[in-house]
Automatic annotation (TrEMBL):
Keywords (A to Z) from UniProt: Membrane, Transmembrane, Transmembrane helix
Record Pfam families: Methyltransf_21
Record-given protein name: Methyltransferase FkbM domain-containing protein
Domain Methyltransferase FkbM: 124-289
Keyword Transmembrane listed: yes
InterPro entries, alphabetized: FkbM_mtfrase, SAM-dependent_MTase, SAM-dependent_MTases_sf
Residue ranges crossing the lipid bilayer per the database entry: 12-32
Length: 324
C-alpha cells in the first residue's frame, strides 16, 4: 500500500475523533461558564448609585458571636449546604436542627426550577437565617440578593456563607422594605421567625430591634452592577409583602422577574385586606397568573378564603414555557 495513502487514511480516522473531543471540551467549558462565570466579582460596597439607606453587610466580616451551624439534608440526592441557627425557641431553627431542613418541598421545587433555568438568579426577601439563600447560592452557585430586617439573622447567613466559601455570589442587605426610604422602625419582640415591623422611632441608628427602611427600587443598582437580568423572588416578610409592589415599579420594569414565590398568610390577609388586594391588582396589571405551588391556577375572586398559604405569581409568558 502507498505510504501517502496510509497517512491520509489515518488523518481521515483521527480527524473526526479530534473534532468530537474538541466539541465536547467546548460544550463542557460553556456549561461551566454558564454556571460559574455569569458576572464579574464586584465588591458590593463599591456599587455606584446606591441609596444611602441601603445597608450592605460585608460577607467577610468577623462574626464574634457563638453561632451553631448545621449541615443540611441533601436534596435531589445532590445538593446540601450550611445553615446557622438560633436557639430552639425559634421554630425555623428548631426544625432545622431536628430535620436538617426547613420547608423541604418548597425548597426542592425552587431548586428544580433553577436547574431547568440556568440563567435565573435569586432575590430572597425575608431571608431569615438563609434556609433558601444557602441552597440557591451555597449549593447551586446562583447569585443571590438576600434581604432581612433582623441583624442576628443576617449574621447567621454571613457565617454560613463563609463556611460554604460563596462570599462572591451573595449580597446581604440589612433593611426592611417600606413605603419610604431612610425611616427607622422598631421590630416586634419574640422569636426571630415571627418578627414584624412596628411603629416608627425617632432614634436614627440600627440595632437588633431597630431597622432602617428602603424601597424595593433602591436595590436595583445592585442587580445592574452584577449584570443580573432574570430572577426568581421568594418573599416572606410577615404581612409587609405589599411594599415590594408599592415601591418596586422600576425593578419590575427593568428586571425580568419571572416568578414570585410569596407567603399568603391567612391571618395577615384578613388583617390587611387592602394591602393584599393591591398586590393582586399589581400583578394582574403586569400579566402574571397566580397558582399554588403545584402550578394549579387559582381563582382571583377567592383570594381571601380559598388560596393556600404559599402562592406563585408567574409571568404569563413563562407559565407553561419554563416555570411549570
Amino acid at each position: 500500500m502507498n505510504i501517502s495513502n496510509c497517512i491520509n487514511l489515518r488523518r481521515l480516522v483521527t480527524f473526526p475523533l479530534c473534532l468530537i473531543i474538541s466539541c465536547c471540551v467546548s460544550v463542557s467549558f460553556y456549561l461551566l461558564s454558564v454556571t460559574y462565570c455569569k458576572f464579574p466579582v464586584t465588591p458590593a460596597q463599591t456599587i455606584s448609585s446606591l441609596a444611602a439607606s441601603v445597608n450592605i453587610i460585608d460577607p467577610n466580616q468577623d462574626i464574634k458571636s457563638n453561632i451553631t451551624c448545621i449541615e443540611t439534608k441533601k436534596l435531589l440526592d445532590l445538593y446540601s449546604t450550611t445553615v446557622c441557627v438560633h436557639s430552639s425557641a425559634d421554630i425555623v431553627s428548631r426544625e432545622i436542627v431536628a430535620d436538617r431542613i426547613w420547608e423541604e418541598e418548597y425548597v426542592t421545587r425552587l431548586l428544580r426550577i433553577l436547574i431547568r433555568n440556568p440563567f435565573l438568579d435569586m432575590i430572597d426577601i425575608g431571608a431569615n437565617i438563609g434556609s433558601f439563600t444557602m441552597f440557591t447560592t451555597g449549593a447551586l452557585g446562583r447569585f443571590t440578593l438576600a434581604v432581612d430586617c433582623y441583624l442576628p439573622n443576617i449574621e447567621r447567613i454571613v457565617r454560613a456563607v463563609q463556611i460554604q466559601k460563596v462570599q462572591n455570589r451573595v449580597v446581604l442587605v440589612h433593611n426592611a422594605l417600606y413605603s419610604e426610604s431612610g425611616k427607622y422602625l422598631t421590630l416586634s419582640d419574640g422569636p426571630p421567625s415571627g418578627i414584624e415591623l412596628k411603629k416608627p422611632t425617632e432614634q436614627n441608628f440600627t440595632s437588633q430591634i431597630i431597622v432602617q427602611t428602603i424601597r424595593f427600587d433602591d436595590l436595583l443598582p445592585i442587580l445592574l452592577e452584577k449584570r443580573v437580568q432574570s430572577v426568581i423572588i421568594k418573599i416572606d416578610i410577615e404581612g409587609s409583602e405589599n411594599y415590594m409592589c408599592e415601591t418596586g415599579s422600576k425593578m419590575f420594569e427593568l428586571i425580568d422577574i419571572q416568578l414570585v414565590m410569596m407567603e399568603w398568610g391567612h391571618g395577615f390577609r384578613k388583617r390587611y385586606q387592602k394591602r393584599y388586594q393591591s398586590m393582586i391588582d399589581f400583578f394582574t396589571q403586569r400579566n402574571y397568573v397566580v397558582t399554588d405551588p403545584d402550578c394549579t391556577e387559582l381563582d382571583l375572586k377567592n383570594w381571601e378564603i380559598l388560596w393556600p398559604g404559599n402562592i406563585y405569581w408567574i409571568k404569563k409568558i413563562n407559565f407553561r414555557k419554563n416555570i411549570c
